[in-house]
Request: fold
Amino acid sequence: MKSVVADYFKANLMVLNVGPSAVTSKDAAYIANELVRPAAVIASHVNEGATTAGKVRPNSRTAAFMSLVTGRPVYPALSGKTMQFNGDGKCVAGC
Reply:
């Protein structure tokens, strides 16, 4: 990820699958914080009831992941909600 996604492509926005069959919250945070270092992260395919009424549930794996990511916003992927990002990875609408 570091060589291809971060160093070569210089990704500003990362969509990261953080479900239990993908990576743990701690490992996913390491990927975002140390390997890729995007401007923003979208947490997807979490395979849990991560939100209630559009808010992240405090005892969820998603909340744990979000608390471990530093220096950049993490957005939960919400059904029926469209988010827009510019080329710098900054959310410009729907976040």
